[in-house]
Design goal:
Layout (H helix, E strand, L loop, with lengths): L10 H19 L3 H24 L4 H6 L4 H6 L15 H22 L7 H11 L40 H16 L5 H11 L5 H11 L25 H6 L4 H12 L6 H16 L5 H9 L7 H12 L6 H11 L8 H15 L3 H11 L3 H16 L15 E3 L7 E3 H17 L2
Antiparallel strand pairs: 1-2
Helix pairs in contact: 1-2, 5-17, 5-18, 5-19, 7-8, 7-19, 11-12, 12-13, 12-18, 14-16, 15-16, 15-17, 16-17, 16-18, 17-18
Length: 441
Amino acid sequence: MDPIVKYPDFTQLDALSTPLREYARLKCEQGAETGAAALIGQLTETMRCTVRLLQELPDDAALSACEPNELDAIRALRAPAQRRLWEALPPEDIWMDKLEGALLGRIIGCLLGVPVEGLSVESMRAWSEYIGKPFPPVSYWEEVQNPELWNCYGRQRGEYRKCALRSAPVDDDLAYTQLALLILEEYGPDFTTEDVGEAWKKYLPVACTAEQAALDNMKKGVPAREAADRDNPFCQWIGAAIRSDGFGWAAAGLPELAAEMAWRDARLSHRRNGIYGEMFLAAAQSAAFAVSDPLDAVRAGMAEIPRECLLYRDLAWALEHCGAVRGHGDARRLVDERFAGMHAVHTNNNLCLIVFGLKLAEGDLMRGLSQTVAMGLDSDCTAASAGSILGAVLGKSAIAPELYECFHDRMDTYLKNTEAFSIRDMAKRYSALAHKVHSRL
């Protein structure tokens, strides 16, 4: 299967990085530090020049026309679809069961994926065999590798073990769901990209890749609408997609509006398929409340992005191949073949894994999450998003209580000036936002 995008061969570049550094160190140790420093300086300048030349390469005009960044242009390129699935929220008991299911599904999926994020399928399988547990996992990981190590959020890896769960520990896949709530409450459903930027500067102490690039740019005085355009090669990675849930929940049953909210959020840090990833997932999560088949939510999400963009074509490919996927191994093999050379935290490859995970769930949230985590790549992101969609379709009543009772209604955070959120209170606040959105229609 030929990949739709063909990347340069980075094999030699990667292979040379270690001997380059180590020979430079060795020559310094042997008294040739002046010559080593000069050569490294020359290479550094050559690399800077190459980066500039890469930035200046003209994009393919035809593909650019299929992948606009502005909302009106995006909407002009969508496939026909039903863009409002609910005229009003359902009865309160049904609605809250679904909303709490979506929130808990996201938390559970995230925490199932965190301990093995970035590991290969083979490494996950070997670790499961080592600790004597089944693979794919059937519950939270009872042991994690390097439990004493600290992550960038100030937590030790050991805190994510099943036996250590006393709350839902911090992770960016959960923090941005908390942040979306604050943005919607403080600025209202008509918030702007500038409002998102202000909220980031107010609440985010740390970020990664595209989000960090946008934060850094804003701190230098770059306007919010331009913050994604400078020193940001990560603008099509998965960072925006993981921020989508809150907008899907606040606009439940209204996928077009959910996608619009996601667009306003995503454009702060992402471009093109990075934006579409958040729009797609927000619309899919919105639609998930109103459908019985999670793949119907996928189709609703696809209808909100340009039908000729790379992400739409990749998602259509995933739907076409769902019948050939019998388990996590099939899914990962197909994705590796199609996306050879793509970074492991890119939007497109990971969102295709989500589609396969939703198919493999077969109406069982834990099975869907287990299979999704076992596919690898950015496993906490993929499982969290799959959990949000499955939780909205199935409801909290379909989730085994032992998967969430261990949280004791507490969701920790690394956002500034806050230690934790009540999970029940968070659901009530999102419900209030959804009622506000629907009352304006």
